[in-house]
Every structure is written in C-alpha cells, then in structure tokens.
Amino acid sequence: DAGVIQSPRHEVTEMGQEVTLRCKPISGHDYLFWYRQTMMRGLELLIYFNNNVPIDDSGMPEDRFSAKMPNASFSTLKIQPSEPRDSAVYFCASSTRMGAFFGQGTRLTVV
Amino acid sequence: QKEVEQNSGPLSVPEGAIASLNCTYSDRGSQSFFWYRQYSGKSPELIMSIYSNGDKEDGRFTAQLNKASQYVSLLIRDSQPSDSATYLCAVNPSSGNTPLVFGKGTRLSVIA
Fold first, then answer.
1. What is the pLDDT of residue B97?
2. What residues contact A10, with CB distance under 8 A and at least 6 apart?
3. Tell me, what DSSP letter sits at residue A102?
C-alpha cells in the first residue's frame, strides 16, 4: 500500500480564497483523522471520521472549516474563506488499533 | 480534558549514549501508547507501540510503560545523529479506537 496520500503538498493562497485539501487513506482503515500542526500549538485534532461518518468535529476552529468523506477512499478539508492564521501544516491520518499512520501533509500558507 | 505532557527539550546527547524521552498522561484508563518520530519538515512516523506494563524492545528502541504512575518512556540506545528529530508521545484514551492524544513532542539532538 502506498500509505496515506495527501494533495497538494504545498498551497499558497491569498486571504479570502477557498482552499481544499485532499486525502486518500490506507485501504481497509476505517478511521480517518485531520490534524493541524503549528509550532505554537503542536498537533491538534480537527475532525475524525469512522466508516465515512463524522464522529467529532469539536476541534474545527470555526465555521470556515468543513470536512467531508464521501467514500472510504477520499476525504476533503475545506477552508472558506481562508485567513493568514490558518497557515499551518495539515495532516491526514488513518488508523487501525495498531496506531495511526500519517500522510506527508499539506503546508498551507495564506498571505 | 485528556492531556499528554512531554518536556519540549531540546535534549542533547552525545553519539553512542542512551537518550531517554519521557511522557506523562492524565487519563488513567488509557490502554495503548505510541511513540512517533518526526523529522523536520516531515510527517510523524510510528516507531513504537506498547500496551502493557513493562518494557518492549525493538532494535535500539525500548518503550517502557508504568500505568500506575501514568508514565511512558522511550529509550534510544547507541544514539546516532540520524536519531535527531522530535519524538511525539501519543495515547489512546480508554474508549476504544478513538483519536490519539498527542504530546507536543521532545526535540532530540544527537551530537557527533
């Protein structure tokens, strides 16, 4: 398996624009997580899905953030409108009971 | 609020020494524990898991768990410069396959 695949790897956008991050989890993993990492706050859980159903989105910072998982092999995290304080690395991870496995991340810069 | 605490470091050790990384957690019912290594600019990589009290060895790495003290550690023997990274402790809270709670990580620097 190729592991968790995220795209794009880097995204630079202007404030106010819509940003969509994409994730393909490892086949057979029934949990998918979106994390955000900054130097100040470390790794923060934004939202997670079980069998494509959102379970807990309490970590989503504002209504500007939304996430979907239309099927077992694809998820998106959308920010609309984006703001400079959204600049961070966004990780997608999928898991079994043996642990969570991370994608390479998307480095988002909002200018 | 479930919390995982780690010393942010940096922890500096000479090449060939033992590096000891420590982590405490607040949820007494936690069942599984993980160590991730994250190189600068890269994603976290799972390197060790431990589920029961005691030691678990994998090559140069040993994870130690003490549930009574709510403490988990990672020992790296014969440290190499390539071990220089941030090490994240992660805990699975008591309720099954739920999201891991991560510490903020300890930055390790192995000096050649």
1. 58
2. A106, A107, A109
3. E
In this complex, how many residue pairs, one in chain A and one in chain B, have their CB atoms less than 8 Å apart?
40
Structure tokens at B93: 């809270």
- Strands A53-56, A42-50: pairing kind: antiparallel
CA distance B104 to chain A (A): 5
Residue B25, judged by CB atoms within 10 A of its CB (0-12, 13-18, 19+), counts as: buried
d(C-alpha A24, C-alpha B23), whole Å: 31
Pair of tokens at residue A38: 């900054």
Alpha carbon distance A26, A97 (integer Å): 14
Closest Cα in chain A, distance from residue B111 (Å)? 23
Note whether B103 contacts A56, CB cutoff 8 Å. no
pLDDT by residue (tens digit) across A56-101? 999 998 899 999 999 999 999 999 999 999 999 999 999 877 789 9
Of the candidates B22, B3, B27, the one whose C-alpha atom is nearest the C-alpha of residue B93 is B27
Sheet (strand B61-66) strand order? B4-5, B19-25, B71-76, B61-66, B54-58
Nearest to B46 by CA among A59, A29, A87, A72: A29
Under-50 pLDDT residues of chain B: none
